[in-house]
Amino acid sequence: MLWVVLIAAGCWLLVHLAPVVLALVVALFIIGTLNPAVEWLEQRRIRRAWGVPLVFTALLLGSAALGALTLPSLFTQGRELVEHAPELRTKLTDWLAQSSVLKPLAEQVRRADYASVAAPVVGSLWIASISLAEYVAYFLSAVFLALYMMLDRDRLRGALFAVIPRDHHLRLSRVLLNLETIVGGYIRGQALTCGLMAVFAFILLTVCGVPNALALAVFAGIADVLPYVGPMLSIAPMAAASATEGWATVAIVVAVMIAYEELESRFLVPRIYGRTLRLPSSMVLLALLVGGTLLGIVGALLALPLAAAIRMLVEELRVDLPGESIDDSAQRASDARAEQEYEDRTDGVAATDAAAIAVAMSEKQLESEPSRRKTAR
């Protein structure tokens, strides 16, 4: 009964503190993404107390510079897209009217009452803007939380290891290292693939003479965070904007974007992410559906690393799945020897120092096991 009460109370608390939990998860994502840069500075004899502010300052300045270069043009081009919407509709209806099969659709497009459609959309945008402000506030809280957690890493890690039995320290440290690899690799890979998509779309649209290329390219880069689905979402507005330059331009833009999406999914993504995620396409789509249904866009963004983390935990904790029959006795014996060595080395040692020893031993253990789920750090 006590366990039932505790579980129920924990679920109730989790539901009511969901935004706080989400901010903590985002903070951990930020830590996993930026920690390799901080460690790189530490290897060059820059203390962590200086390295963490340097990395955050560089990220802030880079984001500000990117916003200053793109946001003014982006707003201008977005307004031009709205202003040219009637012209695009006219061109679309004229093209549809040329076909006897599509002619009824052209009439529906021409007679559509866009004012009645726009009214609820404006109200939805107002509600969305309020939600966006809340997300921004939680994101800023997550950024500062990540900053303080990175600065106080040793004490926080020591406190975590102090409440965990010592015979689980090595496994815990391996899980933390693998989580950092998964999260950091995923976020950095997403940033790279989204940036490449935006640059490619901008170059393509500029060469084809499509107006408002920057706004469309930024949208394509943002949509690319959703694997498989995102690139397809960005093709429709590109095709609509290309209609002003003729249908040959529309065909070129659509064909080239589809070809790039195939190149990205089959060549770029496997090489950028490497073995970080190791998720089949079916699991990727299922994770996106579940995450999007539960938490919307934020859930879709968090779905893939969480799915990869669950798969890693199953392997790392040596969970015997019902349909598997794997002889891992040698690996279990190696784990037992490492845990005994760790207990001998940390006998009478404080939790903070024991945590540092566990991390160092786990790093060596992971480096000597290339067949494991770990990606070389």
How does the major sheet shape up?
Answer: none
Terminal CA distance: 45 Å
Anisotropy-based shape: elongated
DSSP helix fraction: over 70%
- Count of individual beta strands: 0
Overview of this protein structure:
The protein has about 375 residues and is mostly helical. The protein is about 80% helix and about 0% strand. The protein is built from 14 helices and no strands. It has helices at about 1-15, 20-45, 50-85, 85-95, 105-110, 115-150, 155-160, 170-205, 215-225, 230-240, 245-275, 280-315, 330-345, 350-365. Helix 2 (about 20-45) packs across helix 3 (about 50-85), helix 8 (about 170-205) runs antiparallel to helix 9 and helix 9 runs antiparallel to helix 10. The longest helix has about 40 residues, at about 170-205. The two termini are about 45 Å apart. Mean pLDDT is about 75; it is low at about 370-375.
Note the main attributes of this structure:
mainly alpha, 377 residues, single chain
Task: Give me the secondary-structure topology.
Elements: H1 2-16, H2 18-43, H3 48-83, H4 85-97, H5 103-111, H6 114-151, H7 153-162, H8 169-207, H9 213-223, H10 229-242, H11 247-273, H12 281-316, H13 329-345, H14 351-367
Helix pairs in contact: 2-3, 2-6, 2-8, 3-9, 4-5, 7-14, 8-9, 8-11, 8-12, 8-14, 9-10, 10-11
